[in-house]
Amino acid sequence: PRNPRNGRAEFISGPRISGAFYFDIDDIAPVMGSADNPKKLPHMKPSSKLFASAMDQMGISPSDTLYVYATKDCAFYHRAYWTLRSCGHDPSLVKLVQGSLNEWEECGGELEEGQLPEEDERLFRMSDLNWDEKTPTYQVMSDNEDVVVDMDQ
To answer: What's the average pLDDT block by block, 10 residues per block, for the chain (153 residues)?
Structure first.
């Protein structure tokens, strides 16, 4: 069954941790039917260049510590955590926040309230950025181009 929630809409309406970016694992996944995803599978791991381009867009450097969090009952933030660690950001610098955004607030964590405009830089979409025509500056720890096994062969 499909999840009826819309993470982007929830991020836009707030609250959110101040300075947080919306990280959409599907937005940085290879386009279904492309050379990187010929079987049209959802949620696939991005190429090193696509990942590095997303990090550039968010202003993230390889030495930054990243905190991955979610709102209550979000089942997908673990995948964002895995993607960041497996795609070349130093795994020791990627932290998974245990608990929800509600618990963050209950423990005294500050939140940014209010509606974000749709054009806010934290809501970028890779498909709008011509990323494939640019050379990213973010340097992944190691080339994450794993060997893909085609189970039909």
So the answer is: 80 94 90 90 90 94 95 87 92 92 91 93 89 91 59 61
CA distance 90 to 94: 7
DSSP string, 15-73: -B-TT-----TTTTSPPTTSTT-TT--TTPPPPHHHHHHHHHHTT--TT--EEE---TT
Please name which of 85, 109, 108 lies closest in space to residue 96, comparing C-alpha atoms. 85
Q: By three-state DSSP, how is residue 81 classified?
A: helix
pLDDT at 89: 94
Model confidence, pTM: 0.84
d(CA 63, CA 86): 15
Alpha-carbon gap, residue 73 to 83, rounded angstroms:
20
C-alpha 107/C-alpha 128 separation (Å) is 37
Cα-flanking dihedrals φ and ψ of residue 16, to 5°?
Answer: -150, 160
The two structure tokens encoding residue 127:
């498909």
Angstrom distance (rounded) from CA 120 to CA 102? 23
